[in-house]
């Protein structure tokens, strides 16, 4: 009826319908977090609290899986930027100057 999946790292992923049922049990039926966890086989009450909080903030869309999606262009590894030959030349000269100073300090 409700789908749950085990990820390769050992985390459980629950379907939106499963989360929705748990949230309904809390909001509409007045069940407690512990009782919902026992009934649905969820190991931690914090999971239910988080789903209820997301539901209140974003509606049913807040129950959708967000792992692995990033909306910010600044997250993750920065993309390599193509630079002109002059820029690359300036960067390499600065790097050479730095290494020369470093070598000189090491000799002292």
UniProtKB/TrEMBL annotation:
Annotated region described as Disordered, given as residue ranges: 62-87
Name of the molecule in the record: Transposase
GO biological process: DNA transposition
Gene Ontology terms for molecular function: DNA binding; transposase activity
Domain of life: Bacteria
PROSITE patterns: STATHMIN_1
């Amino acid at each position: 009826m409700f789908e749950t999946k085990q990820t390769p790292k050992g985390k459980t992923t629950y379907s939106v319908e499963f989360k929705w049922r748990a949230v309904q049990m809390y909001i509409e039926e007045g069940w407690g977090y512990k009782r919902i966890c026992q009934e649905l086989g969820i190991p931690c009450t914090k999971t239910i609290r988080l789903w209820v909080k997301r539901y209140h903030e974003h509606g049913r869309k807040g129950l959708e899986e967000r792992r692995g999606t990033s909306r910010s262009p600044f997250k993750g590894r920065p993309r390599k930027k193509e630079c002109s030959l002059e820029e690359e030349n300036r960067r390499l000269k600065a790097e050479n100057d730095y290494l020369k100073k470093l070598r000189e300090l090491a000799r002292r």
